[in-house]
Amino acid sequence: MMESQVESQKYEKYTATITFRLDSNVIAKLKESARCEKSTVNALVNKLLLQAVEWSITAAKSRWVPAEGQVIKSILERLDDRTVTQIASTEGKSLPRDLCLSMRGNYGISEWIDIIKMRSSVAGFDVTTIHNEDEDVFVIRHDMGEKYSLHLKSFYEQAFEDLGCSAAFEISENTLVFKIPKKHLKK
């Protein structure tokens, strides 16, 4: 069996040079953020611009609404598991298609995984992708509680089912893991 490999950032492959004039206060904040992340300003700006073009610009048009995590967690904790599952499964039948089409222009497994990863990253969740010989494993650590894990599992499970993809899911209190067989992933 091949060793697992953690996915590298996709925007590092090809680069070009461009010059911008930025407010000195913005530059100072970028330098401080990069220092805190043990990164470079260039890498941070690449990450922020990628997030803007692949998420922020299209998310608002696709009706994504930012919400305080603790509020969502509190609402979910007041619902029974059956209700959480029913709501997530119902929304998972149509919402992923609409999101993929409006945000990526195509509805497919790769586009849906891309949206899941970007959405998770924007929300501040830890996202890890592990490439194994027969499957890719996606680990999302969210610190939102077991009901949120159940919600994500039910929502994503329905979306992958609609896409004809046999994804396997595992959840814990603050983590969702899903596995996609290589046969469903574009080469």
- What is the tally of helical segments? 7
Question: What is the percent of helical residues?
Answer: 40-55%
Give the name of the CATH superfamily of the largest domain. H-NOX domain
Kindly give the count of domains: 2
**How many strands?**
5
The rough form would be described as globular
The CATH class name of the largest domain reads: Alpha Beta
Compute the CA-based radius of gyration: 18 Å
Low-confidence stretches: 1-11
Distance between the termini: 19 Å
Please state roughly what percent of the residues sit in beta strands, choosing from under 5%, 5-15%, 15-25%, 25-35%, 35-45% or over 45%. 5-15%
The strands making up the biggest β-sheet line up spatially as 1-2-3-5-4
Task: Give the class from helix and strand content and strand pairing.
Answer: alpha+beta
Mean of the pLDDT scores?
88
- Main pleated-sheet profile: 5 strands, antiparallel
- CATH topological fold name of the largest domain: H-NOX domain
The run of helices and strands is EHHHHHHEEHEE
- Level-2 CATH architecture of the largest domain: Alpha-Beta Complex
